[in-house]
Design goal:
- The chain starts with 5 loop residues before the first strand and ends in a 12-residue tail after the last helix.
- The protein is of the alpha+beta class and 278 residues long.
- It is built from 9 helices and 9 strands.
Amino acid sequence: MPVPGVLADRYQLRGTLGHGGMAEVRDAWDTQLQRPVAVKLLYAQFSNQPDFRHRFQVEARAAAGLNHPHVVAVHDYGEQDGTPYIVMERLPGRTLADVIAAGPLPQHLVRSVLDGVLSALAMAHAAGILHRDIKPGNILLADSGSAKLADFGIAKSADSNHTIAGQVVGTMGYLSADRLSGRPATVADDLYAVGVVGYEALSGRPPFPQDNLVALARAVADEHPVPLHALRPDVEPALAAAVERAMTRDPRARFTSADEMRAVLSGVVPAARPHTLV
């Protein structure tokens, strides 16, 4: 059913901000509080499918339960004419993916973005929530450069385990070999994705640039990314060490927590030993 121009007699829908795999995001105006908001609307073809509706609810509940400066705030959730929607804060900036498309980012910006994302993940993980879809398109940047983590649509928590056994969810280029093999997601897998984001932001290219999904999965499982220092010799050792340790193939050699990765990223705690991407 077509979405009306006003939701809940309150949110005036305007232009389209973006499209995702299961929803679109619209610019909107909250007529009660007189402020801009973003409204995420589940596509019509998914509105009558229980699994997609449940994932949509999971996103709203997960993000709304995380009151954090680096998580996109959820203001409201509802349904109109069979279409579920989420009302979120409206950020004037772009996604990290938009920025990376223009080329490698300054190191100070990459460090700031990763620190913000890790801060958000530290709170989410402490609450028992795994994001499972960390990628540049889900990291929004305010005009100040501050990063905010969005899209908890496939988040997993103790009370929202709706993944079918053996089903792999997430975005291919940011999944570890363990995830691709069907193993359950862990904190280390969220941090692996943060490492991939950092690598891409610093180098301007993904660690595995294969376009074909089969070739990409094979590369993640069997190949080694080009070391960061070979692509960008000026990257500071602490920053490169944090990114590459997060991407280490052996999950036992990765970080055990977002806070640990933040400490290495900042240089407060050195990497325990040199890490390779094997």
